[in-house]
Fold this sequence. Notes:
CATH superfamily of the largest domain: Multidrug efflux transporter AcrB transmembrane domain
Number of domains: 2
Largest sheet: 4 strands, antiparallel
Number of helices: 11
Helix content: 55-70%
Structural class: alpha+beta
Mean pLDDT: 79
CATH architecture of the largest domain: Up-down Bundle
Shape: elongated
Strand order of the largest sheet: 2-3-1-4
Strand content: 5-15%
Low-confidence stretches: 306-310
Number of strands: 4
Amino acid sequence: MQIIRQNVNFDFIGKIKIAVTISCVLLMISLGSLVVEGGPRYGIDFAGGTLIQIKFSAGQVDIGEVRRAIQQLGDEQASVQPFGDRKENEYLIYTQTTTGDLEGLSGQVRAVFLEKFGQDSFEIRRVEMVGPKVGKDLREKGFLAVVCSLIGMLIYIWWRFEFRFGIGAIVALTHDVTIVLGALSLTRTSIDLPIIAALLTVVGYSVNDTIIVCDRIRENRRKLVRKDLRLIINTSINNTLSRTIITSGTTLLVVLALFIFGGGVIHDFAFTLLVGVIIGTYSSIFIASPVFILWEKLLHDKKRPATVKR
Length: 310
């Protein structure tokens, strides 16, 4: 199946300067948001503390009322955020309190909310606790998992293709992960274990697209020996364009359906994948390719003999 004609020839390489400018702006926004927020916003899995999910059954309850009620427990740094659709009238409460007696904590919360909102006006759906040491250990392992995946991709592409292709792929992957983290920071989405799983999925998806382009570049370099590298890369991207549109399009449809209809539990996971698939497809075309060209230029300049001044 082909959506794009086989002989199509869009000038992707000619738009590299525009694409790099867009990427620089997105990276600056992402890094700026992370700096302002003091780094990624960690969920209970990584930060430690207690998570309480509560659903109100009678009318719309203002988030400010929930915050004032939870502050009566003595944790001034407790945070409250809506869960899922606002019409569901459901909230997640994060506190730094950690205790082995979750039933006792649940009872304290129930007592405070009974006094504030009345009988049968709410339901405590879950209470979860993660100790600070466990959270720190999970955070370190999650970070290590992402870094190891990037290194593993570099080694595989270096062995399977060429080192410069591996460098291009790693630059594209780092670009993707940074922008996704920036999107999570801008939307104040907490990073937890499902988000790490989504990031690893984005890494795998993005490198798959890049490998397809790399493989076609390698084939075309054998066929078009006398052609300029920019032309070869542009031809290779056009050769794989139909496959990219079909793969990315069908993936986006599934992820978009999860994002819209999946509910609060899977919402953040689907959002991470949604941003990651879009950015990953874009970087395979507009980020990895400039790195190939730059590497070739640097390599060519090194091989060029120095001129002697007289």
